[in-house]
Each structure stands twice: as structure tokens, then as C-alpha cells.
Amino acid sequence: MHFLQKYVSVGKLLGVGMMLCITLRQTAPPKSLKGFFDKSNDTIQQLDLFMVAYTTGAISTWIIPSSYILTILVGIPSNTYILAFLRVRLTSKTLSTVVLYLNLALSDLLLILSLALRVHYHLSGNNWIFGEISCRLITALFFGNVYCSAQTIACISLKRYLAVVKPFLYRRMAKTSLAVWMCVVVWLLYGAAIVPELLVKQSYHIRRLEITTCHDVLPLEEPSHSPLVLCKLILVFLGFLLPFMVCIYTHVAVIYHLEQSSCDWKLFTRVSTLVFIIFLVCFLPSGVLHAAHYIRLFSSGDDTLYGYYRLAVCLCCFHSCLDPFLSLSQDFLRRSHRHQCLVSLDCLIDGNHSSMYCSRSVFKIISLSCIDNLICH
């Protein structure tokens, strides 16, 4: 009996301890990876096992910096080239399209340039030596431009949707002004997204590991970090979920519209679908994991998804290398589009295709003065 009472008492103590742990984790404002801040010496003292494993493991010290190095080596020359290429292709007819692609190339280039210091950070064992100001700036540029690219791609998809599905409305629009205002909205959202990262402390010294982390480890109890959770969730919605839904709807609508025609649009539909799949593969994992990570942090204090999220972000960075090559394909599709117009017109004149769909498609195509209505991205 005494033996049983002893275990009952131990069970009660464990139950009380678990309730206290749950209460503390629910009341403490969650952040990226968990750390407990010692204000007396401005260091993080207590660490959980996952945080130690992430900061010292191969994922953050080898795999992530290796992917960043590949992105830099491919992305800087390719995006620099596409900026020059678009400048050469700049005409009054293609101005609205070039504005959006220049915006995309600029966003990609800023993202890639922000990776250089992060490569040094990860290869040094997640030890930041460049100071607090540079940590805030690089963090803001990094996360801001990841989703700025997605928003710009959504704008390009929306423009293509208007040109193909709503040609009469599109022709009446001031296309250049529309493109410029799209870019302005994207950069306003970008500015709103990076402000919280610039206002709060991002670098903390971890005494146990003798390293200074940049953004990866933030103290739970610091009230200045509390708004970051809500800001991150808003950023996920505006930077990924909303562009993602726009891209899905516009892509399906454009493909469906072209498939109704008897004319041959196989080349465009295949390339457009391929580019759309690449967009999903690169952005979907990071968007889902980003939202799931902060939801789990907010609800239970669980930070175990953070490492997987950081790996998924590498795909977003790699997409910035693919954008220039995908942009170059638009030149080929423009030539194909011009050829398709002539073939479709011949079909109509010769009477080989009496389908109403073909006639309607030809009428819509010829009614558009710009040959940049169908652009691969």
C-alpha cells in the first residue's frame, strides 16, 4: 500500500509539472527557434535539443549554405543578363510586360545578393559576426524578396489572364500604367513586410555554443517579438497564399479558354503548365511550412518544423535562378504566337476550320494589337 501511494504521489507531481509546462508554453510569445533570454548579460541561456541539433547539424552548416552558393553562382549572372536583355527588347508595345519582368529580376537579384552574408553565417556554424544592423537588414531583404517574387509572378499571371480571357477589357486598359501600379502595390507590401524585421533585435549570443545567431534563435519572453508572429502569418497570406490562388485561377482559366479553340495552342499550354508546376514546387513547400511552423509555435510552442521550413526556403531561392531562363522563353513564344495568328487567319480564310470557337479565337487574337499578350511565366 505504501508502495502504491508513493507512485500515486509521483504521478500527481508529474501531472502538476506537465500542466505548468503547458501553461508556460501557451503564455510565452513564440518566435523562430526557442531560447530563454538572460537580460543581465544579453545572452540566451537555455536551449532545447532541437535548436542545438539545428544550429550544429549538417542541414544548417552544409546543405543550406551549399544551396545558397549554387543560387548565387547561377542567379547573379543570369539575372544581370536578363536585365540587359529586357532593356534591349524594350519598345512601346512591350513596355508593360518589360516593367513586370524588370521588377521580377530586381527582386530576384536583391534576394540573391542577401544570400552572400548568410552563406558565411551558416558555414561559420551559424555564427553572425557582422553586427545587429546588418542582421536586421539581411533578414528583412531575405524574407521580403522571397515573397516579392511570388507577388510579381501573380501580377504577370493576372496580366496574361486579362489579355487572353478578357481581351476587349484589356485593350481598353492603360497597360503600362496597370503594370506600374502593380509594381507599386508589390513594393508597398514588401515595405510593410520588412518593417517588423527592421524594428526588433535579431541577433543573440548563445553562451552554451559560443555563437551569435541571426534571426534563427529568438527569446520567447521578449515582448518586442510578440507582434512578429501575427506579421509572419499576414506575410504568408499576402506573400504566398494570395499569389498562389491568383496563379491557380488565372492558369486554369487561360488553359481552359485556349483549349476551347480548334486552333493549336499545345506549345503554349505545355510550357505554361511546366512553368506553373515549377512555381508550385518551389513556393508551395515553404509557404505551407512557414504557416504551419508559426501556427504550431503560437498554439503549443513547438519549433520542430523550423529546420524543414529553412530547407524549403532554399527552393524559393533557387526559383530566382530559374526566372531568367523562363523569361527568355517568352521571346520564342512571341514568335510562335505571331505564327499562330497567321495560321489561324489562313484557316479562317480557307474555310478549313468552320468551328465557331476557331473564328472567335482568331477574332480575339487579331483584335489585340500587342504580341506580348501570351507570355510564358
UniProtKB/TrEMBL annotation:
GO cellular component: plasma membrane
Keyword presence, Hydrolase: no
Domain of life: Eukaryota
Subcellular location as annotated: Cell membrane
GO molecular function: thrombin-activated receptor activity
Membrane topology according to the record: Multi-pass membrane protein
Gene3D superfamilies per the UniProt record, alphabetical: Rhodopsin 7-helix transmembrane proteins
Primary localization class, coarse: membrane
GO biological process: blood coagulation; phospholipase C-activating G protein-coupled receptor signaling pathway; positive regulation of Rho protein signal transduction
Domain G-protein coupled receptors family 1 profile: 78-327
Residues annotated as transmembrane: 6-25, 69-86, 98-117, 137-158, 178-199, 233-255, 267-288
Disulfide bonds: C135-C214
Protein name: Coagulation factor II thrombin receptor like 2
Organism of this sequence: Poecilia reticulata
Lineage summary: Eukaryota, Metazoa, Chordata, Craniata, Vertebrata
